[in-house]
Design goal:
It contains four helices and no strands. By secondary structure, the protein is an all-alpha fold.
Length: about 140
């Protein structure tokens, strides 16, 4: 088998695996959304933690769609997910947490938010040239 053909087959195989894994992530996320909605129906209550979890799932789905459409994964999307996850964790367990842990989670959230601001500022003030294909 020639090198160009081997490379082409290898890339096609990896691309197919990538799409399969993205489909699995999307299906698992939709399943998790369904489970969460069913849970809220069964207990007949909607709490803030439930809504934040649904936002996390929604952001994961948006990230999958964005990646499928553009072939790129904006670094900000996982940061948004991390911020919401930390907020949810803080809301759920704040009463049982020690002060230092609350402070650490709060500082981590602020650090992530600051990172998003710096990345966004960099994109606006120092954009990549149009002909280059970089992950933003």
């Amino acid at each position: 088998m020639s090198m160009p053909l081997l490379r082409k087959v290898g890339l096609k195989t990896l691309k197919n695996i990538e799409h399969l894994v993205l489909l699995i992530i999307a299906m698992a996320t939709v399943f998790a959304i369904g489970e969460e909605i069913l849970h809220m129906i069964v207990i007949q209550t909607v709490e803030l933690a439930d809504l934040l979890l649904l936002f996390i799932y929604l952001e994961v789905l948006a990230m999958v769609v964005n990646y499928i459409e553009s072939g790129k994964l904006p670094i900000r999307m996982p940061l948004y997910i991390a911020i919401v996850a930390l907020a949810r964790y803080l809301i759920l367990d704040m009463k049982a947490m020690e002060d230092w842990r609350i402070l650490a989670i709060s500082l981590s959230t602020i650090l992530l938010a600051g990172t998003v601001i710096v990345i966004r500022w960099g994109q606006l003030k120092m954009p990549y040239p149009k002909n280059q294909d970089y992950d933003t």
